[in-house]
Amino acid sequence: MSLWVVDASPLIFLAKLERLPLLRAAADDWPGVSEEAEMETMRTKTLPWDAAEHLETEEDMAAYLEAALEEGDASLVAAALGDIARAKGMTEIARQTGLGRESLYKALSPEGNPELATILKVVRSLGLSLHAKAG
């Protein structure tokens, strides 16, 4: 049986004092959650989530790219452009930009490092634009 802690800081403190094994032993004696209920909570199902499936309008796409730009992380911006391109159709974006579909998938991934020219071509083909503002 597990020990349920709402605030982890006391548990961390006690673990540092090397008393955690004592707490685990004491938890087995406590009435509470049955082993079946505990096992059920351990079987949480997760499903893959693809942002491209939820980008339906140009407003959605623009807001998604804007949020990525506000973070200031180049790999996040590249990945967001990749999600938007997949939502629009990567084959069509490749045709419009004159770039290879496979190279776009690679460049517009979180691990990708696209050139500025690639980013500008993709943004233009998506019907979006980048703007600079002070402050």
User: Taking all residues together, what is the mean pLDDT?
Assistant: 78
Integer tally of domains: 2
> What low-confidence regions span 5 or more consecutive residues with pLDDT below 50?
1-27
Biggest sheet character: none
| Secondary structure category | mainly alpha
Shape: elongated
Q: Which sequence of SSEs, written as H and E, runs from N to C?
A: HHHHHHHH
Helical stretch tally: 8
Task: Work out the strand percent.
Answer: under 5%
The helix fraction, in percent, is: 55-70%
Radius of gyration: 24 Å
Distance between the termini: 54 Å
Tell me the total number of β-strands.
Answer: 0
Furnish the topology, listing elements before pairings.
Elements: H1 8-16, H2 20-28, H3 35-42, H4 58-71, H5 74-88, H6 90-97, H7 101-107, H8 116-125
Helix pairs in contact: 4-5, 6-8
Explain what the structure shows:
- This protein has two domains: 8-42, no CATH class; 51-125, no CATH class.
- 59% of the residues lie in helices and 0% in strands.
- The chain is built from eight helices and no strands.
- The chain has helices at residues 8-16, 20-28, 35-42, 58-71, 74-88, 90-97, 101-107, 116-125.
- Helix 4 (58-71) packs antiparallel against helix 5 (74-88) and helix 6 (90-97) crosses helix 8.
- The longest helix has 15 residues, at 74-88.
- It is elongated, with a radius of gyration of 24 Å.
- The N and C termini lie far apart (54 Å).
- Mean pLDDT is 78; it is low at 1-27.
